[in-house]
Amino acid sequence: MEYNIYNFDDVEIGDGVYFDDVYSGKYLTQSNYDEYWEVTDKDKHFVRLKLLYFGQEHYWSVEYKFIRQIEKRRKV
Description:
By secondary structure, this protein is an all-beta fold. The chain is built from no helices and seven strands. The protein has strands at 16-19, 22-24, 27-30, 37-42, 46-53, 56-63, 67-71. The strands form two sheets. The protein has a five-stranded antiparallel β-sheet, with no helix packed on it. The mean pLDDT is 84.
């Protein structure tokens, strides 16, 4: 599902994001319902994400329009 509510300026490195299913054509390529992914990098079109899951790191890129929620990092 496309939301189009977040853009480059809304997301900071270190934030956590939730996103819905991402399809490539008719194939589901990534799904994220209950885990937030940490933002590691970003550009005008994509957010690069990392998920630590059972001791393994997983990486993914997602377009801003698929982000449904942002969990802002805490300022120290």
